[in-house]
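User: quick one, fold this
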Amino acid sequence: MKFKCCQLTIHEFYDLFNTSIYEFMNKYRVNYSFAKRLKKDCLSMFEFYKKKQGNDMKYFEKIRELTKLIPASIVDFSIPRDRTNPPTQASSNFITNKEQGDWAEDLIFRAINETSKNYIAVKYGKSDDLIAGDKGFDKFYNEFQNELDTIGKRPDLLIFHKKDFDKKLGTDISKRDHKEINSYVKKAIAGLEIRSSAFLIQKYEKEMSERTDKYLEIVFELKDKILTEYKELLETKNKKYIEILNSINEDSIQIINFRRPSWNATEELSNLTNLFKELKEAINIIQKRDYLSITPKVEDLKVVYKWIETFNVPHFYVQVFFDQSYAISFEEILTLLGDPDKENEYYEISKDVKNQNKTTIKINTKKTTQIAYKIDEPEHRSIRKEMNRGRLLFYVTFDGGTAYLDIENLKSLLKIDDF
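Assistant:
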């Protein structure tokens, strides 16, 4: 019996639906693009028939199917996560980053609760003032690892409709045992994982735009100079460079790639080689990443998925800069990772030296949703902390500030009609 749309047997259809693209490729010996197209067709048809039957897929089921589209080279959801050991000591930079993250969480927490008429933000993420080197830290860390394996990683904030908010539990349930609040958590309409970046995004984007304009001008000047003064020489030496030069424009500049010549037999050839060197260097600068990003860690994808599987609550990442804030759904993150064509323009994956060299997904904020159009900067001050053996750490702590929410964007992101 054939499934006409995809020309699959019913057995093959369910096999594709319930396995990853790569497993299906290996089993039926089809290429990636073909398997990916069939997978998307199957997901679309499955949702269609579910809706037709009045039995829509649950949120966690959609997330589960999206995980099967992601290459195992990025993250293999079929393999249990690696449990980590507690760090032995903290640095001033680590504590400052933690303080900054705590400030960002409190900023969004206050913004929602001071603005919304219908929803309440509740602090939920596992947190403690203990750091590596403090007494009791190893016990706290191991309990945290146990919880990750049991329910997944708690997002920093939960958002509840006021009718579901439990006044007895209050607006901070971060230190409550998960067994005590599991049924309550399932009533949340969203979980927010808050990330922070020590940047002014508007200034960054302005300077990157100016950099791009500057080097575009250099590229086109060099292109015109070579074609005007050295075209005849190129026609005799290697015509392909004329084609390459003619193909350079504002639309193609991000993907242009060529090996520059290294001719030095004559002074004229040496000069031409230097011009191509300058051209290549200018193009390389334009092609460098020119955006700030939302930064989920690859290692967190499994524990976020585990939490979604446990509670069936939509999950979102929020990135707080010191002047604006942006957000993206976990569902959209997985969708991007399952589409190799989106890499570079929408995201890149690299090890982040600022984040303990952990592999991080850097999602272009220009492709996400702005949820705070303005942020008033916090006050900051230096703190001295004495560790064991008389070791001193100095770090920065943050207090105050205000986030001005873009209500319509936030409603669209969370898929709610009121706020």
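User: anything notable?
Assistant: The first helix runs from residue 10 to 17.
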